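Training component of the fellowship. As part of building independent skills, the fellow (R.M.) carried out the full modelling exercise for a liganded target. The chosen ligand was manganese (II) ion. The inputs are recorded below so that the supervisory panel can assess the work.
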Amino acid sequence: MRMVFRWYGEGNDTVTLPQIKQIPGVEGIVWALHHLPAGEEWPMEDILAYKKLADPYGFHLEVVESVNVHEDIKLGLPTRDRYIENYKRTIEKLAKVGAKVICYNFMPVFDWIRTDLFKELEDGSTALFYEKAMVDAMDPMDLVRKINENPDFTMPGWEPARLLHLSSVFESYKNVTEDDLWNNLQYFLEQIIPVAEANDIKMAIHPDDPPWSIFGLPRIMTGPDSIRKLLKLVDNPYNGVTLCSGSLGVNPNHNVAEMVREFADRIPFAHIRNVRLYENGDFIETSHRASDGSVDICDIVKAYHEKGFTGYARPDHGRHIWDEKCRAGYGLYDRALGIMYLWGIWDSLERTKRGTRV
Ligand code: DNO
Ligand code: MN
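Fellow's submitted model of the complex:
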């Protein structure tokens, strides 16, 4: 397991590289050019600027999250070819700074959705929270109306750029079925994977978060069946998954450790975090400790260990603790605690296996 830590870049993250350097066992940053809209080719200069920042700390740039997929690719529009070309050029450039994994997702319009970014837990910390009834009750056209009436209207986690043309985007998805989305993903992967392979970069799709349809939009990366289907779509080791225990773990029928055991050789990147589920479908992100949430983090790490996992892992999100002011879910303290928990489990498994000091 190779531990990495997501960093949003200078001036864009409250956490600093010297701080990350002091978290035990972190060897690289998970990064992206966040200022660029989806679909654009990443300029080499901007990529090299990241390298310049990371080098003095000995951090590698092997894991990129995310190179976002342009909406026209997901929709299967004729204009997609232009954006796919840009994606290929970006892959080639990323290879020049040593990238080995690209995380991306194929969720229409929205990335992850929560209804409250700072919901208080019993201990006074706050965390990302999802209220199912609230999202279920939202009519997409109502959302469009609200945004049109008030340009400042937003929901936690929404990027303003994505909201700009919301009504036309919703309109374009009206007749797009899950099958269409699968076909469009296949078209994308058939073109991208050979380039990824030639550049020794593994593509790792992130599951939908939450892993079900929202606002009537189709969503296809929702569980083990989707992963099985994805891996067959283009059956190549460079077509893999970012196995996110928190995204997949909010469906009570999912056993994430079993997914690790089944898909291990196609998981170049692990997101490990816990969530607590409620009977009504709500969920909140908790500390990594297994007993704090509903996801068996111990068994998940055990599964990775059994499989001799040599891929990258990151703690994904954390709570906001000790009065930290930070990007929602991306503070220093709780993610650092999460890493120590993950190493604690890993090291003790190693010791048991070897019967000696780690
Ligand atoms: C949720 C997070 C996401 C993720 C992107 C990947 O679990 O990991 O923000 O980074 O959806 O594209
Ligand atoms: Mn994740």
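The panel noted the following from the submitted structure. Residues 206, 244, 246-247, 271, 316 surround manganese (II) ion (ligand 2) (CB under 6 Å). The domain at 2-354 is CATH 3.20.20.150 (TIM Barrel).
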